[in-house]
């Protein structure tokens, strides 16, 4: 049932908002429900080729193992992903842009991202910064810029969807040019997330830097293999449990009907510009 709902809700101009947000949860058939009991999950994954699922033959990234853990944790509630792109599983939409640095994500996907944000996700995952390593050499200060651009991406999300919970990864370890700057990027990511949390937004870091350290979690030295993606999913799940314990994950907001992608983009641009 949740798969059908996810597909319906991902097509903006063919849904009724109350249908998605008011779908009832049958608590009699629940699991442990350690993540947001009775709360429908409308989730958005943002990032580069790792978010898109490269290295996974099915290109499902961490979304399929995460979906499976969430479904086992709390059965019979809506769990779906939203976004522009997809892999092979149902409910597998995402905003993963292969080859994009944090800088490019923060500037070039703005209006496409607004279409997804218009659907009011209540949980957003961000893994960005790996592709910035090529841009950093030989300027260590550019690691700060990479983290700053992750901060800009966070700002786009929280200003468009004020009550959203944003989980931001400290990037996995990959064998890429400039990999020595990954710890600097990850320190910067923690700092920009802390600044947004101090400002009152529901934003939290997820340390994924242990994944890929010995290469066994990677398919090609850069992208996780299915084992690596399962580890990412487990870390996302664990931090969702923490966020849930804090009362952060609340039902997604209603979505008003829009006639076109352009009207959605214009509407979301006005929302962000007014903040």
TrEMBL record:
User: Looking at the keywords, is Signal present?
Assistant: yes
Show where the SGNH hydrolase-type esterase domain sits. Answer: 45-230
Q: Which SUPFAM superfamilies match?
A: SGNH hydrolase
- GO MF term list: phosphatidylcholine lysophospholipase activity
- Sorted alphabetically, which keywords does the UniProt record give? Signal
Q: Where is the signal peptide?
A: 1-18
UniProt-listed InterPro entries: Ester_Hydrolysis_Enzymes, SGNH_hydro, SGNH_hydro_sf
Q: What is this protein called?
A: Carbohydrate esterase family 3 protein
